[in-house]
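Notebook, p. 212. Picked up where the previous page left off. The plan for this session was modest: take the two constructs that came back from the sequencing core last week, fold each one, and keep the raw output in the notebook itself so nobody has to go hunting through shared drives later. Recording the first one now, exactly as returned: residue sequence, then the structure token string.
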Amino acid sequence: MSEKMHRAGWLFLTALFIFTSVGLGIWAFWVNTHPSKDETNQSTNQSKDNNVNNKLAGTKLANFTPVAKVDSLQKIDLTPGTGAEAKPDSTVTVHYTGALASTGVIFESSLDSGQPATFPLSGVIKGWTDGVPGMKEGGTRRLLIPSAMAYGAQSNAKIPANSDLVFDITLISVK
């Protein structure tokens, strides 16, 4: 009887070793081929961020009909603000979307990054320096800017030389 018990013990240990090895192998395979909930959420958030980062650039500006030429600065209040008023020497925090006036195609938007921009009005293009004062916090203004008040003969990958521009600006805060 002792030999049968001895064999049964070894058989049990062998079976235990095989089942444990197979089980660990299956578990390791599963873990490496199926992301955890945290990894899935992180991947989904990164996809959402990537979509946000490229959401507006290259698309058409909403509710804007392209114009062949902008002769002078035009200020159109889309939503009047009710807060503090921007002055020529103010530092402003804004969300903005910029497009070419001739096509309405957006070249840049702070909404793509989700982060507003903050700068002194003395440090931006003349169209903004002259077009933003008078806005109140909470307001949205559309500026149609002739090229001479924008970047003039300068060009870059997004804005051709001598381009008239259009900006939708939402004033978040004034300092």
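Okay, moving on. Second construct, recorded in the same format:
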Amino acid sequence: MTIERIASDVVVVGTGVAGLTTALSMPTRRVTLITKTELGGGSTWFAQGGIAAAVSRQDSPVLHAGDTMAVGAGLNDPRAVETLAGNAVTVIRHLLERGARFDIGPDGELVLGREAGHSVRRILHTDGDATGVEVSRALVAAIRSAGHVDLYERTFAADLVVDGGRVVGLTARRADGERAVFLAGAVVLATGGIGRVYANTTNPPEVTGDGLAMAARAGARIIDAEFVQFHPTALASGVDPMPLLTEALRGEGAMLVDDVGNRFMIGEHPDAELAPRDIVARAVWRRLRSGHRVFLDARTAVGDSFPERFPTVFRLCRESGIDPRVELIPVAPAAHFHMGGVAVGLDGRSSLPGLWAVGEVSRSGVHGANRLASNSLLEGLVFGEAVAVDVVASTAGTPKVGVDAVVDPGPPPEVDPERVGEVRRVMWERVGVVRDDASLQSALETISGIERNLPAAPDEAGNLVEVARLVTTAALARTESRGAHFRSDYPEPDETYLARAR
């Protein structure tokens, strides 16, 4: 079969907040924007909480950076954190200029929420808990009217094309079954996280770690793959993905209780329900493992105002037959965000020339071992703009590529869904909220056996298995507990890891 060759200045893969921001911020370049779903797919649409930014007189970028560092458990890069917090107000202004709107109070001021790990109220939100929908809406509209962007929807990016040690494009499968190679002077991965590698996750079905797997196969440096954040309050209703119950609920006073009415977080941390996510997630996990059920009680904190203040959560609960105004909401932890990823600098450059990464697929050091709530959308906005500046300054035109460098991705392989389900179950049960050597070794053995029997052609199933191996191997190697990575056989942090990180 003939492979179509499509050339542009830059290829951006992914249409969440990071990919859309990056593409929009390069008006002087011809940008090819690829997504395997429809425009706006991925996790951004599902983000409820909001965007953290020091916009109030009681706040400052220094305070925001301090909270980010504290939650990151010592592994943050201070330069990345300073960049994030210091540019928050600027990117919010740019977002407003692109048509986004945030909740405004009767006084005409932005309504700010508070979430776990934040010392003050600094969370901008839309319609209470629909911030991701609004951010996606505004950026998608801007892309549709951007004359410099060529959009390819329902196009699966299969593998990077490397020629002479430089990334010069990628191979892909089109929605109509045709195969193509997209050639460019720069490739930017903005493919999001890895949540679907776990049986319990808040991430939508398309979040299968494709960018991370592609980068790893091409030889890019991957860092901190073991750090997976588990959101402590996903709705335990048997739905996949598990509906997220925004942390803003706890910020407004909702409490965690078990099935005998015990508010157990008071004994776990001085900030109780507003402790960092990893601490809350492990406390909920322990309660569940001991045979209890866990609930979020928002009857007093929100009560009758649920439909107005948290309409998304209210709808999700009602769809599961729960009235959160008068009933407890059953919750459980779920894989939510990946702090590890493709190692990049503040400019988004990876270890491979020609390859940049931005957003959740990247590891810039901004989150450290645990992400501060509502820093994820902000990361995509801040670093999307930064990557665009560097790409424009570093590239011009399409490189000449030898024919031998392009490998036909082939048709989509046939994959047994049971094998994918097995990987997801193994990851949840053995590489989840709490791990140890025995569980990790057992998981790696199972993953390796499944990997040997997968088709050679890259696809979502193969990417999931590859990511599972990366996460498990990294978790085995880190013989300490830090942030979102907790090993019951090494329950304390080992400060020698901090020296190695520096």
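Notes on construct two before I forget. Residues 411-501 form a domain with the Methane Monooxygenase Hydroxylase; Chain G, domain 1 fold (CATH 1.20.58.100).
Flagging for discussion at group meeting.
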